[in-house]
């Protein structure tokens, strides 16, 4: 096994793999009109996913995060978890999900080998949650999360997109919640995309505002793990849970980048906000192409840039936040 490394010396033990572009929620910051497609289109098949993950495992990737869209909309999603967890050297399989029908699904996912669960919960107030997502399902999601806890799952995180005038005043509610809940809540700065500029300008708020409030209350930043996501995480001795901040507009955000992305159709994305991706799919059709696939992935890392240009208003080909994948 050789380690995947770019020109800046960054290594990539973490792959975010989208398995569908579809989503069944209508979040106002992402898909306010809902998803216009009603099928999974040309999404990677199970054998293609196995070959892709096997190649990345050969290159040092140990953690796979399944994203979408909403990944649980795939009827074979449990099989996807099991297949990936069965690949040698993959030690952690995680999913980012909106929690739709989670109480009915979580046990099957855990039985298949799921190690970590990220839930999108943009408010703990049921009315605010519904106004943001278009669904009155907050209690259902929380019930599913509790079932995960009851099964012994410790890797549970909650994502909340931070938005001025919508949920930026909810910090106290989240802090009260994590005092007795062993969960990490991560506030994600709203990011500008190609078809989202007006909403961004109206609702963007810097994560540094939350950071200042946390530090004033005695929260301290913890050391980031090698395969961790982009969040800067904070802890407090009086709280079981933690608070994380994902701040892509920070000057040093890309310095510790450790993750690559592959789209639902097999496009390797060196950065979420790059100009498109590189098509790996032709080399996912046969196990005989594994050597060429590994070489091609390694070659593409030479083109990864030092950072994105979000601070200059450049969003690449990203048109909607559904492409972020949690």
What report would you give on this structure?
The protein is of the alpha/beta class and 326 residues long. Helix content is 28%, strand content 17%. The chain has helices at 46-58, 77-85, 102-112, 126-133, 138-150, 171-178, 197-203, 207-216, 290-300, and strands spanning 14-18, 63-67, 92-97, 116-120, 155-162, 184-189, 220-221, 232-235, 242-246, 259-262, 267-269, 278-279. α1 (46-58) packs across α9, α2 runs parallel beside α3 (102-112) and α3 runs parallel beside α5. The protein starts with 13 loop residues before the first strand and ends in a 26-residue tail after the last helix.
| Multimeric organization | single chain
Indicate the structural class. alpha/beta
Level of helix content? Answer: 25-40%
Number of strands: 12
Low-pLDDT segments, ≥5 res: 314-326
Give the topology string: H per helix, E per strand.
Answer: EHEHEHEHHEHEHHEEEEEEH
Overall mean pLDDT stands at 87
Major sheet details:
12 strands, mixed
Radius of gyration: 19 Å
Give the overall shape.
globular
Strand order of the largest sheet: 7-8-9-6-5-4-3-2-1-10-11-12
Instruction: Give the distance, in angstroms, between the N- and C-terminal Cα atoms.
Output: 29 Å
Strand content: 15-25%
**Tally of alpha and pi helices:** 9
